[in-house]
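Q: I'm writing a short explainer about Proteasome activator complex subunit 3 for a general audience and would like to include a description of its predicted shape. Could you first generate the structure from this sequence?
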Amino acid sequence: MDDYSTKIKLSAEHLIRVVFPEKALELDTLVSSPVLSFSEVSKVRAETRLPTADDIVAHSNNVTSGDDRHNSTSTLNTNTTKKRRTDSTDNANSTPSIATSRTVDVGTPVYVFNGVVPSNPLITILEEKLKPFIFHFLDSIAIIKLWIQLMIPKVEDGNNFGVSIQEDSLAEIRTLETDVTQYLDLTYKYLVSRGELIKKVAKYPHVDDYRRSVQSLDEKQFVSMRFIALELRNHYTSVHDLLMKNLEKIKRPRSVQTHSMY
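A: Of course. Here's the predicted structure. Afterward I'll give you a sentence or two in plain language.
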């Protein structure tokens, strides 16, 4: 167990001193890059590829015309066979027959969307770039929390100022951990909401507001991705700054006091 505790302490200090500053700088570079620039918002809107009413009608008409050609050929063959049978029946029977006819009512055509609506490629790229940072932060915070817990001494009366610093640091880190965990929920909720709107677009392609709502949702997600990148950069920086400033108190919360009797 002592070897395991030593390993956790070394890993936590390496994360605080080296890894967290590197991650903060990487995220700062990403935020400053054109990928997360607000000038990309128009491109995000343009990359929203949705079926239009004309596309669905054209597809349905192509399918219908193909079925009509097949049905007309089948009908022609059927009518020829029936004509031959009718002629032979008329020759055998001299009694006049009463011809009956049926009228088939044609209903309103139903247009069905057939195809795949892809995810917005720009949003997908941003998610792939940011998810590794989210996973790394959560994994690293778990190690740092355990490290601080191992540094907390046994309960004693007095001289607990260093212990209060440990507890305050632990509480701050847990708050940041909760915030970052919610970023994953944000991505999941975006995908579910977009899927529901796409279903509306496919069902009501003539309603332009559904189409615009998908584009607006993509724009909102782009802004949220930029916000997540900024917050992750700030979280890496603040954890590094907080723990480096209080590193000595976290490692040695109680000072060793010796009293001389002479």
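A: For your explainer, you could say: Residues 94-101, 257-262 have pLDDT under 50 and may be disordered.
Q: Perfect, that's easy to follow.
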